[in-house]
Design a protein that fits this description.
Two copies of one chain form a homodimer.
Chain A (H helix, E strand, L loop, with lengths): L6 E5 L7 H9 L5 E7 L18 E7 L2 E6 L3 H12 L6 E8 L6 H4 L1 H11 L4 E6 L9 H17 L5 E7 L7 E4 L5 E4 L2 E5 L5 E5 L2 E4 L8 H6 L2 E8 L5 H4 L10
Parallel strand pairs in A: 1-2, 1-5, 2-4, 5-6, 6-7, 8-13
Antiparallel strand pairs in A: 3-4, 7-13, 9-12, 10-11
C-alpha cells in the first residue's frame, strides 16, 4: 500500500478570490492534496468568530487532481470547522491560512481572522500556520512570500508542531528579506482608532482606523522589531491563554467566599 | 479635592437588553460611575472581531446619576474601543463584561465575545473581567452570580491586575456554590459540530451545534473540572499568546534562509 499524500487544508480571511490565498496554494504545489475552504468574500478582523444564529452554506467551485476549492458563507473559523467535520474524508496533516493582505503582528493576532483560523486548526490538534504579508493592497506582490510559505509548510509537514501551539508568520513587504527570526508577540495597542463622519442622513458614524503604538520599541526579540528590520517574524502562538504564573498569586482569593 | 469615583465600563455579547448585563450592572451599584456601551442585539461567538468595512453607530439610551447606557451597532470589542476612544472622558478603572448567558470555559475563551471584550480592556491596560453563567437561557437566574460579580469587581478595583492579564470567570448554575477556584483553561474541542438541514429551496445548509470533548477530565485544576464540582472558576488570561518555551526549540529554523 502506498502512503497517502499529505492533506493540506487552506483558508484565509480575505476570501477565496484574494491574490494572497492563490499565492499560498501556488506555493504548496506538489506537497500533497490541497483543499481550499475559504470565505466567499472579505472577513478581515473576524478573529475566532463563529456563526451560530445563521445557517452556513458551502459550494464546490473547482475540482482538479489534488486540488479543490470550496467557498463558504461563514467566518474563517467556520471554514476550518466545516472542512474538518463535513468536507474532508480524513484529518488534514497541515492547516495553512493566508497569505493575509496586511500585518498580523503584535496584538493583531487577537483580531485576525487568518490567525483565528490557524488557531482553530490547532484546537483540532492539526499543525497550523497563519501567513501574512505587510501590504494591505489587493494587488500586493506575493512572489517573495511564496518562498517563505513553501519553506515553512515543508518544515512543519516534516517536523510537526507541539499540541496547542501554532505559528504566526509575518513577512515584510520587500524583495530583500534579511532572514527569519523566531520571536515573541509585541506588546502594544492601537490609538486614534476612529474617524468620525456623517451618513446620508447627516447622522454621526464611526469608522475604524488608527495607528499602532508599540510599547517596547527597543526589544530585539519582538515581531514588530524584527519586521522593521526586514526579517520574517515567526511567533509560536499558544491556544492555552492561561497566565499560569499568576495562578499562585491570587490563590488566596479562593477564601473570598 | 475629593477623589473621583471609580469609572466602570460594562459591555457584553448578548446585547444591552439581556438579563445578564442588567444583573451585572445591578451588582455594581454604589461602586462608582457605571457606563454601559453594549451591542444593540446578540453578538454571541464574535470573539475579538472588529468592524472595519462598515460604519459603527452609538446611541445614548439612558442617563441617570452615575449610570449611563449606550447601545452600539458593532461587536463587543468595537464597544470597548468606542467607549475608551470616543465616549468616556477618562480612562476606566475597571472593565467588566457579561454576565454571559452560557459558559465561556475551556477553548470557548477563543470564540467568546464576552471574553473578546475583556481582553480588549486588557489591551488598553485596564483591569478587566469577563463573567459567564453556565445557563444559556434568556431567563436564567443571575441572583447567585450577582454576589460573585460584586465580590470580584471590588477585589480587582482594590488590587488591580498585572498588565496584559485579565480574568475569565465562569459561574455554575446552582444556588449552592461550593466556593471559588483559581485554575487554568481546560484543553478540549467541540465534536459533531454541525447539523445538516435544508433551506426553503431544499438546498443544504449547516447549523453550528456540537458537544464539548474534554481532553483532561481528571485534572483538578482546570476550569471545566472545578465547574463540574459547583465551584466558580477564575482563569487568569494573558493577551500575550506567545509560546515562550517553544521559541528556543525552533531557533534553528532561523538558518532556513
Amino acid at each position: 500500500m502506498t502512503k497517502q499524500k499529505p492533506l493540506i487544508l487552506v483558508t484565509n480571511d480575505d476570501g477565496y478570490q484574494a491574490k494572497g490565498i492563490k499565492a499560498l496554494t501556488n506555493s504548496l504545489k506538489g506537497l500533497g492534496e490541497i483543499v481550499v475552504v475559504a470565505p466567499d468574500g472579505p472577513r478581515s478582523g473576524m478573529s475566532s468568530a463563529i456563526t451560530s444564529l445563521y445557517p452556513i452554506r458551502i459550494h464546490l467551485l473547482q475540482e482538479e487532481t489534488d486540488f479543490k476549492i470550496y467557498s463558504c458563507t461563514g467566518t474563517p473559523v467556520d471554514c476550518i470547522k466545516l472542512a474538518v467535520s463535513e468536507v474532508l474524508d480524513r484529518k488534514p496533516d497541515l492547516v495553512v491560512t493566508g497569505i493575509n493582505h496586511g500585518s498580523n503582528a503584535s496584538v493583531a493576532v487577537l483580531y485576525s481572522g487568518t490567525m483565528g483560523a490557524a488557531m482553530e486548526g490547532c484546537v483540532f490538534k492539526i499543525p497550523s500556520i497563519g501567513f501574512s504579508l505587510l501590504d494591505h493592497s489587493m494587488h500586493a506582490d506575493f512572489s517573495t512570500s511564496e518562498k517563505i510559505t513553501r519553506l515553512l509548510s515543508e518544515k512543519v509537514l516534516a517536523e510537526g508542531l507541539p499540541k496547542g501551539t501554532c505559528l504566526n508568520v509575518n513577512i515584510p513587504n520587500t524583495k530583500d528579506l534579511k532572514g527569519i527570526k523566531i520571536c515573541r508577540q509585541t506588546s502594544g495597542n492601537w490609538t486614534n482608532e476612529f474617524q468620525k463622519s456623517k451618513d446620508g442622513s447627516y447622522k454621526d458614524v464611526y469608522w475604524l482606523t488608527g495607528e499602532f503604538a508599540n510599547d517596547e520599541p527597543n526589544d530585539e526579540n519582538t515581531d514588530e522589531h524584527v519586521l522593521a528590520r526586514d526579517y520574517v517574524s515567526v511567533v509560536p502562538v499558544k491556544i492555552d491563554m492561561t497566565d499560569h504564573n499568576y495562578i499562585s498569586t491570587i490563590k488566596s482569593w479562593e477564601s473570598l467566599i
